[in-house]
Task: structure prediction
Amino acid sequence: MSELRRDPITERWNIINTDEPALPESFEVEHQAPSTGGRCPFCAGNESITPPEIYAVRPATSSPNGPGWQLRVVANKFPALQIEGDLARRGIGVFDLCNGVGAHEVIIETPDHARQMADLSLAEIGTVIQAFKARSLDLRGDRRLKYTLIFKNVGLSAGASLEHSHSQLIALPIVPKRVQEELRGAERYYEFRDRCPFCDMLQQELQEDERIIADNRSFVAFCPFVSSFPFEIWLLPKEHRADFAQIGPEEIADFARLLKETLMRMRGALANPPYNFIIHTGPIGPQERQEYHWHVELIPKLTKVAGFEWGTGFYLNPTPPELAAKFLREAVLPV
Result:
């Protein structure tokens, strides 16, 4: 019989198939076909066809918006939100609306078209994480913005329109509903137990050691007990902190190390699947939240969300996280 499992933070229920679980070979992994022509705007030498760089890591001898860079951040050419203008909040009857003000940036992680994040060196991944932090902190000077979402889509079925390795940052004038649900759930838990629910979850995972994939001095990678998707992975910092942008240099190095290992394990166990990578962090604000804990959710695109999920808010997960973690732990890593 399958199991219904309830998330203690969001209070959402998921259905986990524990009787006949899907194994890695059960999934048909969709691979993005290599590009066959045209100029990739993110490749070195094509800087003129992107918007001007906002932030870059490059030698002092190289010129802005030219080749020679290691990482570039540019405005999205087709932004979901635009930095110019006023919010102009207003209502039309029962409906609330405002102008589409915000920021939408692209972090181009490498000048090399053929390398994905898992292929980058630890130092290069650390540079990407540092760029995430720098751009998050810089945008806080804009008082219109309330939340910064950093995410990465890899593969066509995960929403990537370009195969060149990149992440995106969208700063919003409102706190998203999903984040509000996490915050409210964490607040309820904290009010009842006077403890952060994520810290409790982390301690339980470390004690049970059944869903852990890997860990190091500062971070733990595990498949959460109430996984919504098969082979869903969370990376959680061991030190309690609500705000990703407060990450320190040693933590960046540990984060880079565990992220690379986790991506390599996912690649080995699941034949290099498309995936989504999302940093969950607290809203922009001066206060340190005792009840919230920033983390990364890493979701391989192995199944599709269909009518049952849309109709109920439940997710059907065909692979128990305990089994998923076992396959990820046992994945053969390149020497």
Q: What stands out?
A: The longest strand covers residues 147-154. The chain has a mean pLDDT of 93.
